[in-house]
Amino acid sequence: MPTNASKATAKSGELHEQDKDAQGEKFLTGRLQEIPLKPQDEFKRTTLAAGAVLWRGNLREPETVEVACIHRPHYDDWSLAKGKVDPDESLVQTAVREIKEETGYDVRLGKHLGKTVYPVKKTTKVVYYWTGEVTGGEFVPNDEVDEIRWLPIDEAIALMTYDLDREVLAKAQKRFRTPADARILYVRHARAHDRAKWSGDDNLRPLDKKGRRQSEMLVPLLSAFNPERIYSAVPERCQTTVAPLADESGLDVVVDKRFGDDAWLEDMVGAQRAITEVIAEGGTSVVCAQGEVIPGMLAWLSAQGTLPIDGDINAKKGSVWVLSFHDGQLTGADYFPSALPVI
């Protein structure tokens, strides 16, 4: 619980990290989440941070699942792994880096849980959380974190110092009840040269300068989810968008015309079958596609699954939808409008 010192600072009007329950808010609702294009502009003075609920075990066997509770000696509290965004980072990059620095663990990010918001001194701190499966690494006590306790989630909730962290854990617990057995990182190709100014075969229209940067910045974002395979529609701009990821990961890019706009317009059943086949493979796959097929496919997946998606479905160039599936049905969707740094 908050210390006497933290209560005193709260009364004085200058709130610190350990006072976050005093005026904190949570935005953890819904299995459909959209990251703002410019999250730093949500408040007048924003301090952005990102972290995760670290877990290990088998989600199909709930009794085996444990989550990490970290002890910070500076605050003498029990909380979740998180940290501030550095320049030239996306929120996902921050989450992965901070977890590694604080805990020593490598993680595979999963479902976006939402964010907590609370005042710290003269800024508003906004912390984005994901679930994060530990895939490797080793904890060594350090100045930031001197102890980690792995506990069943109910015990972890009881140990947490802050109500906001308890709420994040409760949301993770809810998501764990319907574990994803497949994920698709559904990417719209990065920005290409203007169609109107391109006289050749449209399938050969290349990325422009911004598009090439987008493709490079997609690497750390997509890598955070540990993809096991990469698919692409036929156009060169789609293949080039995922080429840096293929180089970094050592994965081949499987090109299939069924993932493109033409297939969606001319053979919708075949396009749907292609996505269904990827879902059936399980694990995590990247599919790079185009601007017509992505909204249509998402609407179809929503209608077939358990996740209603109302309103317009966005698919900006260089954007990513992280789609979660359970037993073949769409159960969650997180939209990243850009992979570019947030500050």
From TrEMBL:
<keyword id="KW-0378">Hydrolase</keyword>
<dbReference type="GO" id="GO:0006754">
    <property type="term" value="P:ATP biosynthetic process"/>
</dbReference>
<dbReference type="GO" id="GO:0004081">
    <property type="term" value="F:bis(5'-nucleosyl)-tetraphosphatase (asymmetrical) activity"/>
</dbReference>
<dbReference type="Pfam" id="PF00293">
    <property type="entry name" value="NUDIX"/>
</dbReference>
<feature type="region of interest" description="Disordered">
    <location>
        <begin position="1"/>
        <end position="23"/>
    </location>
</feature>
<feature type="compositionally biased region" description="Basic and acidic residues">
    <location>
        <begin position="13"/>
        <end position="23"/>
    </location>
</feature>
<dbReference type="Pfam" id="PF00300">
    <property type="entry name" value="His_Phos_1"/>
</dbReference>
<dbReference type="InterPro" id="IPR051325">
    <property type="entry name" value="Nudix_hydrolase_domain"/>
</dbReference>
<dbReference type="GO" id="GO:0006167">
    <property type="term" value="P:AMP biosynthetic process"/>
</dbReference>
<dbReference type="InterPro" id="IPR029033">
    <property type="entry name" value="His_PPase_superfam"/>
</dbReference>
<dbReference type="InterPro" id="IPR020084">
    <property type="entry name" value="NUDIX_hydrolase_CS"/>
</dbReference>
<protein>
    <submittedName>
        <fullName>NUDIX hydrolase</fullName>
    </submittedName>
</protein>
<feature type="domain" description="Nudix hydrolase">
    <location>
        <begin position="45"/>
        <end position="174"/>
    </location>
</feature>
<dbReference type="InterPro" id="IPR013078">
    <property type="entry name" value="His_Pase_superF_clade-1"/>
</dbReference>
<dbReference type="InterPro" id="IPR015797">
    <property type="entry name" value="NUDIX_hydrolase-like_dom_sf"/>
</dbReference>
<dbReference type="InterPro" id="IPR000086">
    <property type="entry name" value="NUDIX_hydrolase_dom"/>
</dbReference>
